[in-house]
Specification:
This protein has 107 residues and is α+β, with helices and mostly antiparallel strands. It has two domains: 55 residues, no CATH class; 36 residues, no CATH class. The protein has four helices and four strands, in the order αβαβαββα. The strands form two sheets. A two-stranded parallel sheet has the order 1-2. The mean pLDDT is 83.
Length: 107
Amino acid sequence: MASVYSEKEIEGLDYFVVLGEDGQGVKPTEAYCTAYAEQNNIDPAKMLIDESWQITFANIDTGQAGGIGLPWDAVVNGDGMIYYWNDTLATHPTAEAAVDALLSGEL
């Protein structure tokens, strides 16, 4: 999904990818984040480390009583930091549809 976001930057999208764990379930290293970015065609500067998503989920309700499935996507309208969409609390069928709605000015 991140590569779709990369393609939408020309339309005005800004995005970040938050990694809370590596493939072994532990805190990701900078090297792991860089490799992940390269494998997924993501600018490494867009990668953030949030061990076990402690900061992310302290500030964003997943809609699943503390549990999530991975990968997990959320869309935030940067104009006012309005939490708009995630995989569970879906206002649109996909993250891409939610991003398209924001970029087109539907909201």
